[in-house]
Specification:
About 5% of the residues lie in helices and about 60% in strands. The protein is globular. It contains 2 helices and 24 strands. It has a 22-stranded antiparallel beta barrel. Strands 8-9 form a two-stranded antiparallel sheet. The protein is mainly beta. A hairpin with a 2-residue loop joins β10 and β11.
Length: about 500
């Protein structure tokens, strides 16, 4: 275990912030905001029985301080002048519905992943921007969140981004992957990608252990510090945008590879045609994890739009994940969509979809060859009516075949009662068949009713929502949500 990673870096970032703020208070600009939410809902176990009635109170606090470097009086553009900033977001999570024994592995009521209270640093970093005459876009250090063609990441480390106008940008990032399960301000006891990490001692914990093929126990593992490095390049050349990247993560400092991922994205805007394609490959798992390509043609000033979309997806995981031993079914999907105006503010869309699901299990070939080489076919129809103060939309869709049996209808609407008050409602009904569970099929439905209040514009806001849902497996469930947003800039 690397104790320095658990405690050192986040504390250094927080200590630096405390030292930095009073020194630059005169010139700095502060942004303070929070979102507090109350959530009530049941957690249903694998056997369909409710295990926990969650009663969650959650608060996210954010502090951003920028303009820490004074702008020179003769600066041509203050917006591109060098600057130093600090950004911090902390989440406080409490679940008052957790039973007393749910957090004790020695008790039979133990439920992994359920925390009665857990603080978490979502991100905390220093940022310097517009350095070296514009050649360095940004330098960050701390707990970072960054998104690229390789996906979403949370790392404890550093990032530097170089740039040459809009044509070329190079971003390098490295450090320690922020693995949930570390003691200091990292809440979840589960690491990503199917690697369970929770305390294994006790009768309750044994309920979640499984025998492997050799008769031994698969037990949870302690989190390890996982070094990671990543490089991406992106830019725009004429009408074409591009991004390429590669990431390598190790299981530990002296371990084997945990993840090797490469990705590429290209897009082009050749009015009236917009083209886009991307691909991400799991090199360690020797598989393409996802890919897509689309063509969107806009006619009549955008009032008519014809789109062609291709998607491919295959689940991939960390190389030490238990999920690799299970069969997964990659799928290819092609969709053609047409959006068109009707009468006045009424518009519509129609689409058709073909899907091919690859059966990688030992169950045999697709028995329904009517659609070959496709396994499923479907489509849908949508209508939308937009007015200045309200809108309503209806969608009907169906998909039938060897792998999918689904039909659904959605109706949604929103109305602005006043400038500060919005109401919205969504209702859905569906017919489906779960081919893995013969007992669980039939009709289901759900409804949502919510309201949004802008009490003080850009400073105080309140959102609330009530949900009800039914399906044959979980029965009828209810959930309630309330959000309070507070924000101020000084």
């Amino acid at each position: 275990m690397l104790s320095g990673h658990r405690h050192g870096l986040p504390f250094l970032v927080l200590l630096g912030a405390l030292l930095l703020v009073p020194l630059s208070a005169g010139a700095a600009r502060y942004r303070i905001d929070s979102r507090t939410s109350a959530l009530l809902y049941p957690i249903i176990g694998r056997d369909g029985i409710g295990e926990v009635d969650a009663q969650i109170l959650q608060t996210r606090l954010r502090l951003r301080i920028d303009d820490l470097l004074p702008v020179e009086s003769d600066a041509a553009d203050p917006l591109v002048a060098p600057d130093l900033a600090f950004d911090l977001s902390v989440r406080l999570f409490g679940d008052f519905g957790v039973p007393s024994g749910a957090n004790d592995p020695a008790g039979l009521d133990f439920v992994p992943g359920v925390d009665a209270f857990s603080p978490e640093i979502q991100f905390a970093f220093f940022e310097a921007t517009n350095l070296a005459g514009g050649w360095i876009d940004a330098v960050r250090a701390g707990r970072l969140i960054h998104t690229t063609v390789l996906g979403w990441r949370s790392d404890d480390g550093a990032l530097i981004r170089f740039g040459y106008e809009e044509y070329f940008h190079l971003q390098l990032a490295g450090g320690i992957e922020n693995i949930p399960g570390f003691d200091f301000l990292s809440a979840s006891p589960f690491a990503p990608e199917g690697v369970e990490r929770w305390q294994e001692n006790g009768d309750g914990a044994r309920r979640y252990q499984h025998n492997n093929a050799n008769g031994g126990q698969l037990t949870p593992r302690e989190p390890q510090a996982r070094p990671t490095v990543q490089a991406t390049a992106d830019g725009v050349v004429g009408p074409v945008g591009y991004e390429v990247g590669y990431r390598h993560t190790w299981l530990s400092f002296d371990g084997k590879a945990a993840q090797q991922v490469a990705g590429i994205r290209l897009d082009g805007d050749l009015d009236p045609v917009f083209l886009s394609t991307s691909l991400r490959a799991d090199i360690g798992g020797a598989a393409v994890s996802d890919a897509d390509a689309s063509v969107d043609v806009r006619l009549g000033g955008g009032r008519h739009r014809i789109g062609l979309q291709y998607d491919y997806f295959r689940p991939t995981f960390d190389l030490d994940s238990i999920f690799w031993v299970f069969a997964s079914d990659p799928f290819h999907e092609a969709t053609v969509r047409y959006r068109f105006p009707l009468v006045g503010a009424l518009s519509g869309q129609v689409w058709a979809t073909l899907r091919s699901v690859e059966d990688t299990s030992d169950a045999g070939d697709n028995e329904d060859g009517a659609l070959a080489p496709f396994t499923d076919a479907g489509g849908g129809l949508g209508l939308t009516l937009r007015r200045p103060l309200w809108n309503v939309a209806a969608k009907w869709k169906v998909m039938r075949g060897a792998a999918t049996n689904l039909a659904a209808f959605d109706l949604s609407g929103r109305v602005a009662v006043f400038d500060w008050w919005d109401l919205y409602a969504i209702g859905s009904i569906w017919q489906y068949e779960d081919r893995l569970r013969d007992a669980y099929h039939g009709l289901g439905g759900a409804g949502r009713l919510g309201a949004s209040f802008d009490v003080v514009p850009d400073i105080v806001g309140i959102d609330g929502e009530f949900q009800a849902a039914y399906d044959p497996r979980e029965g009828t469930t209810f959930a309630g949500f309330v959000w309070l947003d507070l924000g101020v800039v000084l």
